[in-house]
Specification:
The chain is globular, with a radius of gyration of 23 Å. It has three domains: about 180 residues, FAD/NAD(P)-binding domain; about 160 residues, D-Amino Acid Oxidase, Chain A, domain 2, CATH 3.30.9.10; about 110 residues, Alpha-glycerophosphate oxidase, cap domain (Helicase, Ruva Protein, domain 3). It has 17 helices and 18 strands. The two termini are about 40 Å apart. It is α+β, with helices and mostly antiparallel strands.
Length: about 525
């Protein structure tokens, strides 16, 4: 896929209405577009920056039912999420991994309490179970989690959940849309809604942020799937619309794998303020998070506060033999959860349900609120069901429950770093065969090679250096300092592929440096 071809598809459509136009290229929007296009609807998705640029690229990397939501009594949400977890594991085997989680416990009461709760978790997963939970002895717990504190350890509870690479799934969903003749364009910003004389939404006005060209695009139905930015689109429709989103900032700290040298993940069920914390192995590093802090400043690049980093280090340190410090941090990243909530209530953000809502205004604009990555497919199904009715589209049932996502393969070597590319991995290996130097990792901290970078540039529509180093690869999130070290080399590779000049390279390096500073603990602590 390439962006110029997508722009040409928009031009070819001209004044003919699309069946569905979707605003937003995160989990929700991409899911909606996959659902719509596989039902046979003429579908366009526009994203004002890059796919998964905001919340959808900065999750805890878990496909899970939500153990903490079970503790809050939200059984319906947990059951729905566990079902979706199982479907996603079948449809994207190259990206979704069944991983063992262990809860270390330091009291007999906690051991019994969590064991009973996780049996209910097992039951709710039904035939899509990832495996049964079991009680572990202290010795078994230490074998699973070498590096945890031993004093007072009563044992642990092992349970199963899912792990994935969020931005890579987003790219594969984008490719799935293209595979099914849909149109999807990044850096295409909605600057207005088109309405009939009766006030019914009948399209969008967009601006190509790279070329500066504006288009007026007609549609039978428009879906606002912009996550934390949903209110800005709703207020284009109804200027006095009250906010529907209550954002919550989630911060993650990335540490060397030595802090928990195992393939198992650790769940800390109760931190100093009652939240849940995860320590999850990911791309040969350890991701620890997350926080849950109200944040009214809605931006693509939220920045962690030192208090939040301290909270994560302190609570992880209660459980780890080696207590992590600022000097150990490889990267810090933050995202905003698009919680659907009524302003003015006293709920803490950690108490707000992650259930989604699909609503529509008198003008016919559909908006998807709330939700999370695990349930993106169900959110999309609900949204397209509503779009079919409001847009008077021909009835076609949802196809995504058993739809293989681009890259899905039944058999692969999970130890091969290229397995995340699924069915595209062989073509990347062909690139490696052309030039021996392209097989070499671009930096000792990463497994990514020049061949992978070139493949991503040619087939996955990155338009900026940050697109490539943050989402097509995960370098910025895994080790921000190392990402800055390779940035000049990568910028020149990208410039050669995209036919850009030295002015572009200089501009990209400056922009990337500014963004990367928000991931460096040394910069945050100044």
């Amino acid at each position: 896929m390439n962006r110029p071809a997508m722009i040409e598809m928009i031009r070819e459509q001209g004044n003919k209405p699309w069946d569905v136009i979707i605003i937003g290229g995160g989990a929700t929007g991409l899911g909606c577009a996959v659902d719509a296009v596989t039902r046979g609807y003429k579908t366009l998705l526009v994203e004002r920056s890059d796919f998964a640029k905001s919340t959808s690229g900065k999750s805890t990397k878990l496909v899970h039912g939500g153990v903490r939501y079970l503790a809050q009594g939200d059984v319906k949400l947990v059951k729905e999420a566990l079902t979706e977890r199982g479907l996603l594991e079948k449809n994207a085997r190259h990206l979704v991994k069944n991983i063992e989680f262990v809860i270390p416990v330091y009291s007999t009461f906690d051991k019994l309490f969590y064991a009973s709760g996780l049996k209910l978790y097992d039951f709710l997963s039904g035939t899509l179970s990832f495996g049964n939970s079991t009680i572990l002895s202290p010795e078994q717990t230490l074998l699973k989690l070498p590096g945890i504190k031993t004093v007072g350890l009563k044992g642990g509870i092992k349970y199963h959940d899912g792990q994935f690479d969020d931005a890579r799934l987003a790219v594969n969903l984008m490719q799935t849309i293209g595979d099914n003749q849909g149109t999807v364009v990044n850096y295409m910003e909605v600057i207005g809604l088109l309405k009939s004389k009766a006030g019914i939404v009948q399209g969008v006005k967009v601006k190509d942020r790279l070329e500066g060209i504006e288009y007026e695009l007609l549609a039978k139905v428009v879906i606002n799937a912009t996550g934390v930015f949903a209110d800005s689109i709703q207020q284009m429709d109804t200027p006095d619309k009250k906010p529907s989103i209550r954002p919550s900032r989630g911060v993650h700290v990335v540490l060397p794998h030595r802090f928990l040298p195992t393939s198992q993940a650790m769940m800390i069920p109760k931190t100093s303020d009652g939240r849940v914390l995860f320590a999850v192995p990911w791309h040969n590093k350890l991701v620890v998070g997350t926080t849950d802090t109200p944040d009214d400043l809605i931006t693509d690049e939220p920045v962690a506060l030192l208090d939040e980093v301290d909270f994560i280090l302190l609570n992880a340190g209660y459980y780890l033999t080696e207590k992590p410090t600022y000097q150990d941090i490889l990267s810090v990243f933050a995202g905003l959860r698009p919680l659907a909530a009524t302003y003015g209530n006293e709920q803490k953000t950690k108490e707000i349900s992650r259930s989604h809502q699909v609503v529509y205004s008198p003008s016919g604009l559909i908006t998807v609120l709330g939700g999370k990555w695990t349930t993106y497919r169900k959110m999309a199904e609900d949204a397209i069901n509503m779009a079919r009715r409001l847009g008077n589209l021909p009835y076609k049932p949802c196809q995504t429950r058993n739809l293989p996502i681009h890259g899905n393969v039944l058999h692969f070597d999970a130890e091969d770093p290229l397995h995340i590319y699924g069915s595209d991995a062989d073509e990347i290996r062909s690139l490696m065969a052309l030039e021996p130097a392209w097989k070499v990792p671009i930096h000792p901290s990463f497994t990514y090679t020049t061949a992978e970078l070139i493949w991503c540039i040619r087939h996955e529509m990155p338009q900026t250096l940050e697109d490539l180093l943050s989402r097509r690869t995960r370098c910025l999130l895994l080790d921000a300092k190392a990402a800055l070290e390779i940035a000049p080399k990568v910028a020149h590779i990208m410039a050669e592929e995209l036919k850009k000049d030295d002015v572009w390279v200089k501009s990209q390096l400056h922009q990337f440096s500014q963004i990367a500073s928000g991931y460096l603990i040394a910069e945050l602590s100044k």
